[in-house]
Amino acid sequence: MQSLQLLSPLTTIETMDIYLVRHADAEERDAKKWPNDDKRPLSRDGKRRFASLIKRVNDLPDYVDILASSPLVRARETAELLVEKAAWQPYVEWGELSPDVEAERVVEKLRNFRGVSSVALVGHEPQMSALFSLLVSGSKAGVNMEFKKGAIARIGFSPRKAGPGKLLWLVAP
Q1: Full-model pTM
Q2: CATH number at residue 72
Q3: Does some domain include residue 38?
Q4: Where in the sequence is the domain holding 64, given as residue range(s)?
């Protein structure tokens, strides 16, 4: 895995494209197969459907500066599909994308990057919906939605300015 570097404070980007990605469909919960739910993988159908979605999204970029994933297996496998099918660089794990972490911590981390124009974040509910709402409305309660499994949203976000970003598109399998 690659390491992230913060660039010089003199290097600034006015807007950042944020790609929010909820992990694809996973296997059904089964305490016998996966006593630790963090290890539960994507289902075969979930992998197939998400790979198909990647191919259909014409506005998916050829490159992102950072591809970050939750440490849970199903999110990492979704990130791996983005690496394989969209030809993005390898992902890095962010503990901030774990399901029990508040979305504000992710936004705080995004605001600290310099010289970064695009970030893809692969995570879970309810964090993805909260993060979506924070980024487009400025409040976790501003947008009431469920971020579907395998969905991808592109949000234009200004890490240096207060206020909401702009939803550019949202697709789901």
Answers
A1: 0.90
A2: 3.40.50.1240
A3: no
A4: 16-26+44-171
